[in-house]
């Protein structure tokens, strides 16, 4: 396995890696805290969370397997060359593990807090079922030949695909409601920062090695950075430009409630009383 050529770049690599972990790790907390204070998950898209769960589990399996398994590392070097470095760092494993735990916390909040009429869509549930089926089929294909690197690459591809689609339900929900109320923008800002740091970490390693093989060897890490930056930019545009400070109200609360008696008009009973009094004071018409 190759070693670092520059101590400065190695330190920079580690710094970017742990900045990624901090940004992406902390990005889960604003939403959890917001849900806790509101005792509600209205405004949080459930499909986003269930797809996020499968995505993080897939990424954890890929990162932990490549980082800890000597057998899979050997298969990686056989494919990409022994002069290359493993494209997974300790911060990648730490991030994946932390993300799985945080996602379980959010799902528990969905189960216990006020959620209005929101529920998991049949499309999201179908996607989860298809992913589980694909994983089962790929496992039995890889088993006879012990092609574990290929199998975890499938998990990496799954997390990329789910990253591509997981942001869409939330962005579309914001569009329909014309509001980002209930969705924490703090998590989006941290998520965006994590994407930038993650990509920068990959670039530093490539610069040191004078090779871009690590981008090919861990295309999932590259794509997750680019997709995250793209979608977070859309969510920030919605929050700060398209729908700033717009509170969402349920449909049954949108009608403006009028008072039963308009304060600018004389009540009916008062009008009748005045009419009677006026009639009693009118002079009688003389007989002809």
From TrEMBL:
Principal localisation: membrane
Pfam families: PQ-loop
InterPro entries: LC_transporter (IPR005282), PQ-loop_rpt (IPR006603)
Membrane topology listed for this record: Multi-pass membrane protein
Transmembrane regions listed in the UniProt entry: 15-36, 123-142, 148-168, 180-202, 222-243
Keyword Membrane assigned: yes
Top-rank lineage group of the source organism: Eukaryota
Entry keyword set: Membrane, Transmembrane, Transmembrane helix
Subcellular location per the Swiss-Prot or TrEMBL entry: Membrane
Keyword Transmembrane helix: yes
PANTHER family the record matches: CYSTINOSIN, CYSTINOSIN-LIKE PROTEIN
Protein name: Cystinosin homolog
Organism lineage: Eukaryota, Viridiplantae, Streptophyta, Embryophyta, Tracheophyta
